[in-house]
Each structure stands twice: as C-alpha cells, then as structure tokens.
Amino acid sequence: MPFHVSVDEFERIAAAALDTIPESLRARLDDDNLLITIQSAATESDREEDIDEHVLGFYEGGDDFPKRIVLLQRHIERWCSTHAELVDQVTDTVLHEVAHYFGMDHNDIGETRLRH
Ligand SMILES: [Zn+2]
Fold first, then answer.
1. pLDDT of residue 61
2. How far apart are the first and last CA of the chain?
3. How far is the CA of 53 from the centre of ligand 1 (A)?
4. What phi and psi, each to the nearest 5 degrees, are found at residue 107?
C-alpha cells in the first residue's frame, strides 16, 4: 500500500536527508549548487533512458546542465506503507545519488536494497 505525502512534505524529508551528510561534504554540494528535483514519476523521455517504475531516483551530472538529483516521489512512495519507511527510503535514495555525485559507482556503493 503506497504511503502518499504532499510534495511539500516530501521536499522536507529530502532536505532533512541532506542534513545527515557531514558538514564538509555538504559544503561541496552547496558550492556546486547541486539541486534536488522532485518529480512525481518518470517522464516519457526518462523511460527512453531506462528509468522505469523500479527506479527511485537518479543523478544527472552533465556539463551542459546543472548537476541534479531527481527523486521520483510516486516510485518511492510505492515501497512504503508508513511515514517512517518513507523517511528511510527517501534518505537512502538521496544518499545513494549523492554518492554518485561524488563519483562512486555501484561497486563502490556496494549492495543496497535500492536499484539505481
Ligand atoms: Zn545508482
């Protein structure tokens, strides 16, 4: 049973997840203006990039665009049935994508319960 929250609440949870990152690392994210964008679900063009309903979020680090983490709210909510689970899942997703921002690949990150 998906656990739904408002976009505002989802944003608040994502911001709190960023606050769990140590100060020294967070300063680098801030300097770089790393954005977190919340999208309700994958778009048509995301799907062309193999971003399907199993993907909870992704990191875009191209030179031509602002670096950003995209969180797919409905996809994350699908796996959660309580507020606490939602907080855990959003936090894991944010930290996973921040690891990509710092150049880690999935071997570095290791096995997690999250895809992508
Ligand atoms: Zn990943």
1. 86
2. 22
3. 14
4. -65, -40
For ligand 1, the distance from its centroid to the CA atom of residue 31, given in whole angstroms, is 23
Q: With the CA atoms of 101, 106, 107 and 112 taken in that order, what torsion angle do they form, in degrees rounded to the nearest 10? A: 120
What is the Å distance from ligand 1's center to 58 Cα?
A: 7
Average pLDDT, the chain: 91
Tell me, which fold does domain 7-109 have in CATH?
Zincin-like (3.30.2010)
- The domain segmentation of the chain, as residue ranges, is 7-109
Could you tell me where the DSSP H helices lie in the chain? 7-19, 23-31, 44-48, 73-78, 83-101, 106-109
CA 94 to centroid of ligand 1, rounded, Å: 10
pLDDT value at position 16?
96
The contacts of residue 97 (CB under 8 Å, 6+ apart) are 57, 58, 59, 69, 71
pLDDT tens across 54-103, in order? 999 999 987 777 899 999 999 999 999 999 999 999 999 999 999 999 98
Centroid of ligand 1 to alpha carbon of 116 (angstroms): 3
